[in-house]
Amino acid sequence: MNQQNITQVHAPARHFSVLLSPTPRGARLARLLAVEWMRDHEVPYGVTESATHVVAELATNAATHGRVAGRSFRLALLRHEGVLRIEVTDTRGGDLPRLQPTAPEGDSGRGLLLVEALSDRWGVEPGPVPRKTVWAELDLPHP
Known about the structure:
By secondary structure, the protein is an alpha+beta fold.
């Protein structure tokens, strides 16, 4: 009988994508999954901390402002050529997020200000209908 010993080496994926419910629980799960993926991919601590806040803000926005009953939002993380890219896609493509002035006494409206402060670049890509993707990129330090 011909037997072979096969050793499989599992290289961690350089990207991650998951569909989540557009609820506070889905937003929280997005943050927890992102932290675990970044830990598995040895993303440096400072980047992980900033990225965790960015994921939390974008996922919360998707669950709050991009929510359509019965439709999930997607979280994607990609590590490529010295950049960590975070993408959150929801199904309310007509409502493109933008920075807005906030009232000092207001309780909300600062999420995109945090995303802008913590990321190196961010933006919005409309489509395909009825979706939009809000993305943020954080540069990774060179080894």
